[in-house]
Amino acid sequence: MERAGRTQSSARRRRSEATGAIPQLPWRQLRNPYAPTEPLSGDQIAAIHNASLRVLEEIGVNVLLPEAREIYRQAGADLDPNSTRVRFDRGLIESSVAKAPPRFTLHARNPARNLIFGENYANFATVAGAPNVSDLDGGRHSGTLADMGNFIRLAHSLNIIHLIACYPVEPIDIEPNLRHLKATQLVAALTDKAFSGYALGRRRILDVIEMARIVRGIPDGQLDREPSLYTVVNSNSPLQLDQPMLWGIIEMACRNQVVVLTPFTLAGAMAPITLAGALAQQNAEALAGIALAQIVRPGAPVIYGGFTSNVDMRSGAPAFGTPEAAKAAQIGGQLARRYRLPYRSSNVNAANAPDVQAAYESQMSIWGALTGHCNLLVHAAGWLEGGLCASFEKFIIDAEMLQMMQAYFEPLVVDDATLGLAAMREVGPGGHFFGAQHTLERYETAFYAPLLSDWRSFQAWSTDGSIDTTRRANRIYRKLLQDYQPPPLDPAVAEELDAFVRRRTEEGGAPMD
Amino acid sequence: MERAGRTQSSARRRRSEATGAIPQLPWRQLRNPYAPTEPLSGDQIAAIHNASLRVLEEIGVNVLLPEAREIYRQAGADLDPNSTRVRFDRGLIESSVAKAPPRFTLHARNPARNLIFGENYANFATVAGAPNVSDLDGGRHSGTLADMGNFIRLAHSLNIIHLIACYPVEPIDIEPNLRHLKATQLVAALTDKAFSGYALGRRRILDVIEMARIVRGIPDGQLDREPSLYTVVNSNSPLQLDQPMLWGIIEMACRNQVVVLTPFTLAGAMAPITLAGALAQQNAEALAGIALAQIVRPGAPVIYGGFTSNVDMRSGAPAFGTPEAAKAAQIGGQLARRYRLPYRSSNVNAANAPDVQAAYESQMSIWGALTGHCNLLVHAAGWLEGGLCASFEKFIIDAEMLQMMQAYFEPLVVDDATLGLAAMREVGPGGHFFGAQHTLERYETAFYAPLLSDWRSFQAWSTDGSIDTTRRANRIYRKLLQDYQPPPLDPAVAEELDAFVRRRTEEGGAPMD
Question: Which of A70, A87, B148, B188 has the most Cβ atoms closer than 10 angstroms to its Cβ?
Answer without folding.
Answer: B148
